[in-house]
Design a protein that fits this description.
The complex is a heterodimer of chains A (265) and B (109).
Chain A lengths: L1 H10 L3 H17 L4 H19 L5 H33 L7 H27 L11 H25 L3 H25 L4 H32 L6 H24 L2 H5 L2
Helix pairs in contact in A: 1-2, 1-3, 4-6, 4-7, 4-8, 5-6, 6-7, 8-9
Chain B lengths: L3 H7 L5 H11 L6 H12 L5 H13 L3 E3 L9 E3 L1 H27 L1
Antiparallel strand pairs in B: 1-2
Helix pairs in contact in B: 1-5, 2-3, 2-4
The chains are: A mainly alpha (265), B mainly alpha (109).
Chain lengths: 265, 109
């Protein structure tokens, strides 16, 4: 069963990756026992490779737009998951059962624990130098995300049962959805595939914008000088050189870790 | 103080440890994926999963620290390149330094 699942996951890797490594990975899967852990990490690897394949590292602004689109899709998927969970519970238990108070207490305790964990992690990371800081551990996010979605589904189910008409239901949903989606996105972003690639894209996109900003300042300065107003054009020209160097370095780093760099695709 | 070559292994993020293990496994000679898995399990006590192993192999190949040899059926052996050997030596040197300091401190304690 696990072996079949692992093979199915390997089939979902991007085509260029499959052409290069699928035979070898399939051989590895056939050669030894397959653990649940192996299936999980193959799945995570599949997500990483798919994101890498979808992102054009030559054009950071387009890559950034794609990443934002993925984020939006994640928000929608989270909302749909919460709604589906709540409605499923309502279908299974149409009347509020007081035993579910236990589930509500458990959910609240879970959020408090999650908050304490996040706070401790953040405080510990702040003590480190910026380069050595690590994101929220992946295993914690992987455990917390489904628990969070399950807890929100229970809350949503209670709201669904007690809502007095559609308006009440929508108000209840709006009042809680922002916080719940924010938590879910925080957790999702920790298990987001290829975080280093994402960080490199953000850096390159920012550096590109900084270069455009300096170029625009130079144009403005020249216009003022033409009108007889003294302007610091030389300062901005020096700044432009520095920003171009930073941009080129960021682009080189991004290209080095890009999918196309690896496969020449 | 961190070494430059050591930093380049650290650049592999969550793959830096499996990448180091692969470099150590290949220091003995060319090996394919399954042989690397067995060797790493024998060395560390932990068997790397296929996703981690091939994630690290892909990154090492990308940096030209290892090189693929012609495939034998579905198994493709990999060998350490001179650049990979240099990175491995630098990391071992850094580890030796840490070990020396740790041992001296334990001896003082």
């Amino acid at each position: 069963m696990l072996r079949r699942l692992a093979r199915a996951i390997v089939d979902r890797y991007p085509q260029v990756w499959r052409e290069r490594y699928a035979d070898e990975v399939s051989d590895l899967i056939e050669s030894g026992p397959v653990r649940l852990y192996d299936v999980g990490e193959l799945f995570h690897g599949m997500l990483v490779e798919r994101v890498r394949a979808a992102i054009d590292v030559e054009r950071p602004s387009v890559a950034m737009a794609k990443l934002n689109a993925y984020k939006t899709m994640s928000v929608i998927a989270t909302l749909v998951a919460i709604q589906a969970g709540g409605w499923t519970l309502r279908y299974m238990w149409p009347v509020y059962d007081e035993r579910f108070d236990v589930a509500l207490y458990a959910a609240t305790a879970f959020w408090l624990l999650l908050f304490a964990f996040w706070l401790t992690h953040t405080l510990l990371q702040r003590r480190k130098a910026a380069d050595d800081r690590r994101p929220f551990p992946v295993w914690a996010a992987l455990v917390a995300l489904p628990l969070h979605l399950a807890s929100v589904s229970v809350f949503f189910w209670v709201r669904l049962i007690s809502a007095d008409g559609a308006g009440d239901y929508v108000r209840a949903l709006i009042s809680s959805v922002y916080v719940h989606v924010s938590v879910a996105i925080l957790l999702l972003m920790q298990i987001w595939p290829g975080r280093r690639l994402v960080d490199a894209i953000v850096e390159a996109d920012g550096a590109e914008n900084a270069v455009r900003g300096a170029e625009s300042q130079i144009v403005n300065c020249r216009e003022w000088i033409a009108k007889g107003v003294p302007s610091p054009v030389a300062d901005w020209e020096r700044e432009l050189v520095v920003r171009i160097e930073k941009r080129d370095a960021a682009l080189a780093r991004l290209k080095a870790m890009g999918y196309r760099a690896r496969f020449g695709a | 103080m961190r070494h430059k070559a050591d930093d380049s292994l650290a650049d592999l993020g969550r793959f830096s440890e499996p990448a180091f293990n692969i470099l150590v496994a290949l220091a003995e000679g060319p090996k394919h994926g399954y042989a690397m898995t067995l060797d790493i399990e024998a060395m560390t006590g932990n068997r790397p999963g296929p996703g981690t192993l091939y994630g690290a192999i892909a990154r090492l190949e990308e940096r030209k620290w290892i090189e693929a040899l012609p495939a034998d059926d579905r198994r493709r052996p990999y060998k350490l390149t001179p650049a990979g050997e240099k990175v491995l030596r630098a990391r071992l040197q850094a580890l030796r330094q840490v070990t020396r300091i740790a041992q001296a401190r334990l001896a003082d304690a």
